[in-house]
Amino acid sequence: QVQLVESGGGLVQPGGSLRLSCAPSGRTFSTYNMGWFRRTPEKEREFVAAISRDGTSTKYVDSVKGRFTISRGNAKNTVYLQMNSLKPEDTAVYYCNRVDFLSSNPIFDSWGPGTQVTVSS
Fold it and tell me: How far apart (Å, rounded) are the C-alpha atoms in residues 74 and 108?
């Protein structure tokens, strides 16, 4: 199974931006639909965004539409999440995973370590 490694998180003020990256370790995921999820101590892991294997289709949870953009690298083997106009409620640990594009459900049972995003003044 593909090992996923997320990076790019950090502490940012409200209104700021961050760019998260997700890369595989050991295998390629260029043929997979991929997604970003996030989890807080108060909430179960929730879907944030997904991108199709060829990068032509995307979808987002309503709360991030117009602020977040999911994309893939040229080789389709890295997935990014550009997060703009960040809000305190975006504070969470962010994870990537292979995703069922229609249902937005994650497919891999194991998760990477995630990357912490903290939005605070």
Answer: 23
Torsion of CA 33, 93, 74, 110, to 10 degrees: -50
Please write down the HEC assignment for all residues of 30-95: CCCCEEEEEECCCCCCEEEEEECCCCCCEEECHHHCCCEEEEECCCCCCEEEEECCCCHHHCEEEE
- Tens place of pLDDT for every residue, the chain, 121 residues? 678 899 999 999 999 999 999 998 877 888 899 999 999 988 889 999 999 999 999 999 999 999 999 999 877 789 999 999 999 999 999 999 999 999 999 998 889 999 999 999 9
Output phi, psi for 53, to 5 deg.
Answer: -60, -35
